[in-house]
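Re: that chain you flagged

S.,

Sorry for the slow reply, it's been a week of failed gels. I finally had a moment to sit down with the sequence you sent. For the record, here it is as I used it:
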Amino acid sequence: MNNLSALLEKSARDHNHLCPRQILGVRIGLRGIGSLQLEADQGSKRLLVITETDGCFADGLSAATNCTVGHRTLRVEDYGKAAATFVDTQTGRAVRVAPVIDIRERASAFVTDEPRHYFAQMQAYQTMPDEDMLTVQEVFLNTPIEHIISRPGMRVNCDICGEEIMNEREICCEGSIMCKSCIGSGYYRPGIKVCLPYQISSYK
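Prediction finished late last night. Pasting the C-alpha cells below so you have them in one place:
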C-alpha cells in the first residue's frame, strides 16, 4: 500500500490533482506488470503498454509503469475505455486488464459510509482487492509487435505530399509510397492552406 500511495502522489503531481480514473490507472498498471512478472520500465523498453483511452487514466498508467508516449513505450488506441494491454516485447506475451463491468456499484458497496459516488470510488479503488475490481485476460495482438515498435532510423518520404514518414508507417500502393493521410485513411482531410502571421508579414 505504501508503494501505491507513492505512485498516486506521483500521478497527482504530474496531473495537478488526483481522481478515480488516475487511481484506476495506477491499479491497472500495477496489475498488468505483475501479470507479466515485469518491473516498471526503467529504460529497457521491454514493456509496452497500450491504453484504450487518454486523459487521467493514462497518467495513472504512466505513473505505475514509467511508460510514456515520448519513449514509445505507451501507445494510445482511443476506444474510450479505461483498460490497457501490457506486452512483453521480448516474448510477445500480452495481457489486457480492465475494470469489472459493475465496478462503480462495487465501489459504493465497498465504502458504505460515503454516499457521494465520486469519493466512494476514490476510497474503494485504493483498497479493493484486485480480484474484486479487475479482470485479466491473455490476448493476441492483431499487429505483430515487431511492426508496432519498428526499427531505429526507418524513414521514407510520401510520394504524394512529400512529408517524412517514420517507424515503417508508410503504405505501398501500386509501386508508390504513401502516408495514411494521402491514401485516405488519415484522421483529417486537407482544407485550405493558411499562412501563419509571421509568414503573412514576411510578404509585406
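What I noticed first: Confidence is low (pLDDT under 50) at residues 200-204.

Talk soon,
D.
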